[in-house]
Amino acid sequence: MKHIGFLSFGHWTDSPHSQTRTAGDTLLQSIDLAVAAEELGADGAYFRVHHFARQLAAPFPLLAAIGARTSRIEIGTGVIDMRYENPLYMAEDAGAADLISGGRLQLGISRGSPEQVVDGYRYFGYRPENDDHAAMARRHTEVLLSVLDGEGFAEPNPRPMFPNPPGLLRVEPHSDGLRRRIWWGAGSRSTAEWAAEQGMNLMSSTLLTEDTGVPFHQLQAEQIERFRKAWAEAGHDWQPRVSVSRSIMPITTDEDRAYFGADSNSRDQVGWIDGGNARFGRSYAGEPDTLIAQLAEDEAIAAADTLLLTVPNQLGVDYNAHLIESVLRDVAPGLGWR
């Protein structure tokens, strides 16, 4: 059994071929797709966050709206770039969205990916020491995790506007349990180990910022194994979750074949990101029986408890709901995921 959700990058473009022409289209359709996914029996609705791009950027209003429109499905991000974040303000927003949803928020965060602009976090007011932006993202993360623990740290005003509870004050609203629902988007084996040491769940996408020459799914499976070993060594008193993302396109209609038939021969790719080799995972497209056989060989999917299906959101709500339903109905049972 696996948790199966979708991951949307929330693209929009003013093109006659796109169902999402504006930011408003993308936001409202994201809510509708989450509602549809819950009705289909999916387990999660996750959204990528990109700044300075025609993609989703402000996750918390969207997550809160989805939380108010749904009752069961997990809602989350994959991922928020912590280089841009004020961790205390983020803790307030996350706490509010989690309370609105009844404790269903699964917050994926990370150092972030290559940006649309040069050092975009500087425009948000953040300047890393010694130009080490990865270290800055980790510092912001450590502050966020500390605040989410819920312990008081701020000295109260002796003459406040409203009465204070005794002791030091914490950020409000606080949502119990959210601290254990923070995920780190790790792009390498070493960052997965760091996430384990910090007590965060592991979120691994369709690329890794390293390449050892082995197939992507095997390198990702090694990353998961090292994460779990580091978790055990850290001595945390709860069990983490692990998610992987995949593009899985069952071809069950002529429309599916027109869109994704050419992807049936997809293979891993090697590229160059942040000054080093990176390995990109393949897409899966084909008849359901073919997909079942191929996915059964994916070692990282087998090792993870959560699978996030990347969806082409510009094709609209109805088509993406069809893709999610096809995976749940025609593929997942054959692999023992349902």
TrEMBL record:
Coiled coil: none annotated. SUPFAM superfamilies: Bacterial luciferase-like. It holds the Pfam family Bac_luciferase. Residues 9-255 form the Luciferase-like domain. InterPro entries: Bact_Lucif_Oxidored, Luciferase-like_dom, Luciferase-like_sf. It comes from the Bacteria. This is LLM class flavin-dependent oxidoreductase. It comes from Skermania pinensis.
